[in-house]
Design brief:
mainly alpha, 6 helices, 72% helix
Length: 81
């Protein structure tokens, strides 16, 4: 993990968060995010993941952000319902 974390921090410091943002939210991969949320269930980690996801949707260049926000509203139901 160390090389990934160091590279990420370096990129953010050099280019800013928006230009350094990557991963399934940045790509708009709704299927992967839905699988993450389902896998996390109602765990404490789910609350953190959802909070970070909401923040990202509000301030970072998230593709398909409307669909991502719909996933956030599905709390308490299975993601596939």
């Amino acid at each position: 993990m160390e090389p990934i974390v160091l590279r990420t921090v370096h990129n953010v410091l050099r280019s800013g968060a928006g230009k350094s943002f990557s991963g399934p939210l940045a790509r708009g991969d709704v299927r992967i995010i839905a699988a993450h949320l389902e896998s996390l269930g109602d765990s404490a980690e789910s609350s953190v993941y959802r909070a970070l996801m909401k923040y990202a949707c509000d301030v970072l260049p998230v593709k398909r952000s409307d669909e991502m926000k719909k996933l956030l509203r599905r709390r308490g139901r299975k993601v596939g319902e």
